[in-house]
Amino acid sequence: MEEDRMSQLPDDILLLILDKIDIYEAVETMILSHRWKNVWRSLTGLRFHFHVPSGFRCNSIELRPKILPQCQRVSQFLFHRDPTAAVRGFHLSYDNPGYVNREFMEEWVLYAINHGVQKLRALEINQISDKTYSFSAKEISAPLLTSFRYEAPKAWECAKVNLPMLEQVYLDIYESIHCDNHTNSVTKSCSGLFETDF
Description:
The chain has 198 residues and is of the alpha/beta class. The protein has helices at 11-18, 23-28, 64-80, 102-114, 179-188; strands at 45-50, 89-94, 98-101, 119-122, 125-128, 136-141, 147-152, 157-162, 168-173, 195-197.
């Protein structure tokens, strides 16, 4: 039998390899051997891409069962991840402008922040809800966050923000009349901010 040299590589190298493939394909490498069983649990770059069928209206009954399993899959991934592993980057994106349950979105962002996220991106995010409120949080404190990109029709409501290391921010809130208020609250809380795009 040919020698398995790849499995002899240190975890840091194996994680670099897994970081180059789809995150759920990385999870599937656990079946390769005992050596690979837990490597994926320490991935630091978390990229979740949602497949959203076109032609659905926001809050449509038909859309919810198509999105919910994907949301649950992300939560399951985070639950089984090594709780001591840091998060370098957290990225959510969609095929088309997509919808997500508010509770899931807030759970994921809080997870990323609590694990020291440095780069946070949420692209083309809307929400599935019976109401029209925006995503919200009483306070967002991410002391290690250096880059933030958020594209959505509605702003993320937050009373207090603490982002001392933030250097780059891109906001595209294209249906909000309160964008200036959110821009001001972000810039005032970021002492190291040098690049903005609103």
